[in-house]
Amino acid sequence: MKAIGIAAALLVSAASAQHFQRLGTCPTLGCVFPPDQADFLAGQYFDIRLEVHAPKNGSEVIGLPPDEKFTFTIAKGDGEAVPVTEFFKIEEPKMENWTFTWYEDLFARDAKTPSVVDVRAKAYRRLALYEPGEYTATLHYNNGSTTSATWIVRDLAEERKAKNIILFIGDGMTTNMITAARLIGHKSVNGKYQTTMQMDKFPVLGHQMTHSIDSFITDSANSASALYTGHKSTVNCLGVYADSSKNPFDDPKVETIAEIFTRLTGGHVGIVSTAFIADATPAGLTAHTRARSEYGAVVDSFLNGITNYTWTEWDGPDVLFGGGAEQFYSPELGGITYQNKTYYDEFANKGYQILQNRTSLLAAPSDERALGIFTVSNMAKWLDRNVYRDNLNQSLSPTGDKSAALDQPGLKDMTLKALDILQTRSGDKGFFLMSEAASIDKMMHVLDYDRALGELLELDDTIKAVVNKLNETDCLKETLILVTADHGHGFDVMGSVDTQYLAAQNTDRKKRDAIGVYQNSGLSQYQNTGNLTYTDSNFPRNWDPRYTLFQGLMADPDRRENWSVRKDGPREPAVELEEDSDDYYANSEDGEGGILLNGTLPVENDQGVHSLTDVPVFAQGPCAEIFAGVYSNIDVFFKMATCFGLARGEAPAEK
Amino acid sequence: MKAIGIAAALLVSAASAQHFQRLGTCPTLGCVFPPDQADFLAGQYFDIRLEVHAPKNGSEVIGLPPDEKFTFTIAKGDGEAVPVTEFFKIEEPKMENWTFTWYEDLFARDAKTPSVVDVRAKAYRRLALYEPGEYTATLHYNNGSTTSATWIVRDLAEERKAKNIILFIGDGMTTNMITAARLIGHKSVNGKYQTTMQMDKFPVLGHQMTHSIDSFITDSANSASALYTGHKSTVNCLGVYADSSKNPFDDPKVETIAEIFTRLTGGHVGIVSTAFIADATPAGLTAHTRARSEYGAVVDSFLNGITNYTWTEWDGPDVLFGGGAEQFYSPELGGITYQNKTYYDEFANKGYQILQNRTSLLAAPSDERALGIFTVSNMAKWLDRNVYRDNLNQSLSPTGDKSAALDQPGLKDMTLKALDILQTRSGDKGFFLMSEAASIDKMMHVLDYDRALGELLELDDTIKAVVNKLNETDCLKETLILVTADHGHGFDVMGSVDTQYLAAQNTDRKKRDAIGVYQNSGLSQYQNTGNLTYTDSNFPRNWDPRYTLFQGLMADPDRRENWSVRKDGPREPAVELEEDSDDYYANSEDGEGGILLNGTLPVENDQGVHSLTDVPVFAQGPCAEIFAGVYSNIDVFFKMATCFGLARGEAPAEK
């Protein structure tokens, strides 16, 4: 369960979020969500949340009681501002109130002097703007203060140009990593690659900016939401803007591409990930919560959509494949599920076939909806499934019976079967498939570069297989294929390491001589052909050559680096000397013979963190040309929506 | 002269190159240059070098004497192989011989047991292949051994599509750095940038792979040559393949885009850089040597081209602007020049106006050729020219009189004047302009992130000014503009740093708490407006906010990081405790109050090194569309040559 432990550690530290900014998206004391500069697809559902903050102590105290008489108006273009209830023809909701605390800076945190804020709030649910153009939303509060938000409804064509979209997400995948994966997986002669990555062959390239709304570094939750909804949000949020209330399920929602596509066109949806399936990237397609760690509720949303408010009707995807069995099997077996239900049964009751290993996946009929859950926690990595198979001997069976999950599929198996089912079932309606190589990020987090690059090569191999399959069935020309990432991870390769020389030296300063830079980097010693269990593919044959890559992250815990493959399973670079101390040191059992390096991250971190860099977007198929150039991650949503023709300039007739 | 000291240190370590590979481009004992897989532009001049190696000791000894009877044949397609002299109708050159030594690995280096190789060699000079297609060049040696090289002459259109090409090179500039520069130079509201970089606005984006021919990490010399000639080479090489002889001027040459463009079309050439002008990126356009450190000869090649062999006639560029006055002023003043000449005089004698400060640059007439040399060594950085101007008080006057070079232009001034001169002088012939922001790389090398990002913002500002100027003169539509880099540098931003908290803590582990990641990164504290001396531009107003960027490289010397701007001039992260010991430790005078971090590079390194990552190519104008997707750096040459229509399928008539 180590992988879960790590994920949980990340989330716990991230969940204590209200540090150092009162509320990220609201620098003033009057808050409007969606905030200023928000973009909308015409007809996209969203909620409005208004908050007025009355700081009770700290630097922001203004000596006014909490304002209970705030008002809110909306104006279209240069038109007259009218009350929100009139604008949308809705009832005034009831006033809510709560308090929350935050620390103004690190000194305040050390001194344990939180600032307390008294809040009055309202929410308006499931609204939509149809007419393209600019809207001005204004909150009037505290006797004359205002917070104005400019909302833009983009003017997009309603004509559909792509029948299908396949969105590949390499979680945390940067250009730097793609370059490194090419170097170990593809053969070069005198500087000329004899084969290249499938994504290298895509005709259109773009870059997307991944920053969060209130922070320039994102996590996988709100970056997924940006890609899926066209709205940036804050760390840990899925399909909502974060408000300041304690309830993780009442934050103002925005509709996702999966929801809109299904609601408007009846199109079919598939979701595939090598993560536990409740993880952020798959979750972002159906969940609406400010806490990505509400895994049970995420799984319920896959099947039932949003049930606590009136929202887009959702009856489940055609395909849901991944890990994370602990949110599916019975609590009697140790399952951690929503309302203590057994979700294998819930899915079966709705007509899903339940698949729990690669053999049944490959044999499954393509005309039935399918839930495939192949392990507890994250799925096994390509390197362990194909090279170091002994590492599969863990009690991770998706049945919950504590046996080993030895027969796990890879991303290619899952994605090709998902494609079969979607092609068979969607008919003229078309489909949207999201396929995620999740452990590129997860393995970069733990500085396990070999496993991360193996996952990246598996993603590329999956893309190759999908392109070939679509070509065979003549569907390639009606399918937009996108390959992108949700955020970066500060990684690069700077040379080579003579691991034999490194191990033979006795001091860290002498060990550094083993690093070869510039011309001493030499050529890649990894070979891309040979007798792996994984055939017909570009993967290294030898993961343990004498000369490896001098590679790494830039934001690290303390660790010992020896730049060699971890044969015993994913790396654990840092450990606590004392349990629950939140004080991590280099793991003495990791990186044997290597150089001891001090970290730069706060010492409660046992792994690396995400980075700022723009990430690449590779596109081919109908509409591909609009993915060229540099743009925001939210534009990926608007471009996909344009290709699907999802904008709606008029409200539907009343039913 | 510190900057020169640093550059020289890099080059000395790089010049002792024959370590660990006998000869990078030649794994067998028979060597053919250009090697297997080389691509050629039809009609491009090149030399052939053949070598047969007889190892006298070490692991490769085969017990044969040096072969003096080797033969060499060439076949076109499936045609008959004919002797090279017959194929090209040339005389047989005389046999050459020499020996060289190398170390087989680090253990051999420590044991001081070099391997010695006896060489027999020939060279065939200034040849060209005209007919597109595949050629097989075969060296027969050692009684039956062969080394075969497949050469490809690309089949490219001869039609010219662009009148002008402007090639901007951000030396060492990666996507990660562009993202960081955007973050400090442009304002964002709720995650939406209110302005973006000029390069963000380019419609076409590509990635180019930068690896060297015999190493996966490149330097700026051979990567420049790849961009300019379509031939990858080895570290330190300019416009040649490296042979094993001691003479740095006899290596087999390949013709550059500047040479071909001028020879075939009479087009005009401009060269602009913020480096000392003999540095690799500008040098690559006219120099042909395996030692980039032959600065004097490089400067002579700018003016006179290649003089030791018959080669493309070259009469100097229209514009040559940059630093590096020590290669121009008289040796009596301390100049270090080719054949002890005074190159200001040499240029003036050929009709160049000589410019030595910004004032004279701006006032210079646009109808005369111009040499502008504005400082000894590398030019002052944007940050020092505009914010910390006291740092200009050094004895760096380009006259050599030891006064200060206070009135230095920036990249924008130089590039706009270069454009004026080229537009005025080139008429219908068109021009090729290379403009380099050299100190992005130079400042990344010394971990001076602020200065590096300042240079990147200046590059972007220059591109903006050039686009605007071309638009005003209606030349935008006939000018292909490219923005790219020659290689990467492992850099990224992972969060923010509370510099006040960092300074207030007493232990390194506690100081690490000052690092904010994910939502604690917050928003950029740099402001992009205000009253700099540099106007109308997107540069930070405040370079020294409390919350800075948690940024860095991945391959470092020992250093102390405090993530704050260096107000006293470029950073010097590591120093020797004992002079000439080649043993660098963290500089105790750098990074006050920061965290002491151990490096990973061999301890003789006082700075960071280049990285593997693919680098971006931004393109606009005629032909821009062919720069989309992922390709090798040599393809940038072929794409530019295509736009200029430089391929020649037939040899010119005899004169």
From TrEMBL, chains A, B:
Q: Which residues does the record give as Zn(2+) binding sites?
A: 171, 441, 445, 486-487, 610
Q: Tell me the Pfam families matching this sequence.
A: Alk_phosphatase
Cofactor(s) for this UniProt protein: Zn(2+); Mg(2+)
Recorded hits in InterPro entries, A to Z, give: Alkaline_phosphatase, Alkaline_phosphatase_core_sf
Tell me the cofactor note: Binds 2 Zn(2+) ions. Binds 1 Mg(2+) ion.
Entry keyword set: Magnesium, Metal-binding, Signal, Zinc
Q: Where is the active site?
A: 220
State what protein this is by name: alkaline phosphatase
Taxonomically, what lineage is the organism? Answer: Eukaryota, Fungi, Dikarya, Ascomycota, Pezizomycotina
